[in-house]
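In response to a reviewer's request, we include the raw inputs and outputs for one of the modeled complexes. The two entities were modeled together in a single run.
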Amino acid sequence: KNEVEQSPQNLTAQEGEFITINCSYSVGISALHWLQQHPGGGIVSLFMLSSGKKKHGRLIATINIQEKHSSLHITASHPRDSAVYICAVLVGADGLTFGKGTHLIIQP
Amino acid sequence: DAGVIQSPRHEVTEMGQEVTLRCKPISGHNSLFWYRQTMMRGLELLIYFNNNVPIDDSGMPEDRFSAKMPNASFSTLKIQPSEPRDSAVYFCASSLVLMNTEAFFGQGTRLTVV
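The model returned the following structure tokens for the whole complex.
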């Protein structure tokens, strides 16, 4: 069974700060997803990656397959980035296994 | 496309009643997933379909839960009889090819069983 660990569990930062959220998993995967869940509850897919790095606007996601580790970075953070960020991994063709999420609050 | 559509958004029911949750995936997506989210356990996969066929239902908690996908544009998750511990947010998601492509989530159905 794949274990997915996220850190930190909670993070409060000031607007403009550079944010890093980490995700580690225990077995080999075929893909990793980063999801964002807003206070209203909706879930949005941010990235799906299996190697290297992806960038979308102020968001950057990286993955190191050998180290079984991924990071999500937010540059120039803004209060609207406040949300829960969830890492989820795919092993083979199964469904996703989720981390517990990182609660991020960006204060003005 | 309007995205993944779930109904109802909120459901309050009495213990013992049958509950049916509905999902319309994005047109053209071959895979559909049902997830449950609770405070205690976070997000969990219940069941997923590929090309309307159930592939893995090992996450379905009990025989009280059942899911169907009669066609490519509709799926249901049924709980009969419902219990208070079934209270959770149930999400439906769809993707082009299993989860090797980007996943699109519905807004979820918040179920409360009293």
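As requested, we also summarize the result in words. Chain A touches chain B through 22 residues (CB under 8 Å). The first strand of chain A starts at residue 4 and ends at 7.
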